[in-house]
Amino acid sequence: MAKHLTVEPDLKFIEEIQGLGGDTLKSCFQCATCSVVCTISPGTHPFPRKEMIMASWGLKQNLITSPDVWLCHNCGDCSAMCPRGARPGDVLAAVRSLAIRDFSPSKRLSDLVNDPKKLPILLVLPALLFAFMAYLTQCFPQALSHGPIEGIAHSKFISTWLVDLIFVPLGIGAVTLFFLSIKKFLTAIQEDGRGKPIQLKPFLKAFIPTLVEIVRHERFSQCSENREKTTAHMMVLFGFIGSFIVTLFVFTLLYVFHIHGPFSQLNPLKWLANIAGVCLITGSTIMIFLRLKDGDSISNYRDWYLLGLTLGLGLTGMLAELTRLGGLEATSYAIYLVHLVFVFNFITFLPVSKLAHLAYRTLAMVYARYSKRE
């Protein structure tokens, strides 16, 4: 006797996909062109055809627990070749956004960062917070100072102690949220009946070759439709990595060795910081230009938020430094305050914004290698 399977479509999930850029979903008539033209789709269980079927039927649990959703790099090959204009790449991008929200322990935080109406709150509240810190620094300069500092220094405007009093707990909270989200994701892809149970040692062994692949952007280079964005994406990635390394070293120098800035322009940390800043600015600017150039590209608020945040981080960081070196004290301090607002947004919403794909996609690629889905 044939086995009966009851399918319960989640109509709300379908509407959410369509509202996040996957409005072309119902144009798909399952010709499988997308899976055929995708150069990075694995030979076993290729995507994105099966994902388009699941999305059309509103099979939410099957979709968000599938690591294949994250193997897609949204290069645009499938969307460009689709005879029906169903744009599978954009549908999967919408699914990934919903997956990030679903796996996050804080749905409200996710809704906050993905709602354009909430953008003024994301900018004004931290700006007021850092303005208040600037006020405290001016009122209690001796108590909040690391010691005598000559010339223009941003710590004279807003004490480093106060900044770290916000950013350290914020960073710990973001890492904790990320850990809980990823743990839920890894558990889900094993428990849905399709996944291979994770054995720690061989799973970790798959990390190193996967990280090498990511750093070299091997899969991006295989795509043909948007290959030009590979360099820009790589620059942004290296910009974030360089900024993280600089932040880690500066924090260690300040609180372990009690060495505070500003540092000389000949300091290797300054070189790395400046290179990282240039990478963020150049890479994000190119990506913005490419999106504007491609009239067929679907860009949602979450896309522009991330690009604006990346460009803002690099631009305000570099301008704050240049105006400080140029002796423009008031201008430098004002730009530094804006820079802190961007940093606040970056740390706070890292686990729930589109940038979270750094972790989800990495783990999905590791899992694919581990489970021999390559």
Account of the 3D structure:
By secondary structure, the chain is mainly α. The protein is built from 20 helices and no strands. Helix 9 packs across helix 19 and helix 14 packs across helix 20. Helices cover 68% and strands 0% of the residues.
Mean pLDDT: 88
Number of helices: 20
Number of strands: 0
Radius of gyration from the alpha-carbon trace, in angstroms: 23 Å
Distance between the termini: 35 Å
What is the succession of H and E elements?
Answer: HHHHHHHHHHHHHHHHHHHH
Query: What structural category do the secondary elements indicate?
Result: mainly alpha
Record keyword descriptors for this entry.
single chain, 374 residues, mainly alpha, 20 helices, 68% helix
Summarize the SSE layout with pairings.
Blueprint: H1 11-19, H2 33-37, H3 49-56, H4 60-64, H5 68-71, H6 77-81, H7 88-103, H8 107-113, H9 119-139, H10 141-144, H11 154-157, H12 160-191, H13 200-205, H14 207-216, H15 218-222, H16 229-255, H17 268-293, H18 301-325, H19 329-349, H20 357-370
Helix pairs in contact: 1-7, 3-7, 9-19, 12-19, 14-20, 16-17, 17-18, 18-19
Summarize the structure.
The chain is mainly α and 374 residues long. The protein has helices spanning 11-19, 33-37, 49-56, 60-64, 68-71, 77-81, 88-103, 107-113, 119-139, 141-144, 154-157, 160-191, 200-205, 207-216, 218-222, 229-255, 268-293, 301-325, 329-349, 357-370. The longest helix is centred in the middle third of the chain and has 32 residues, at 160-191.
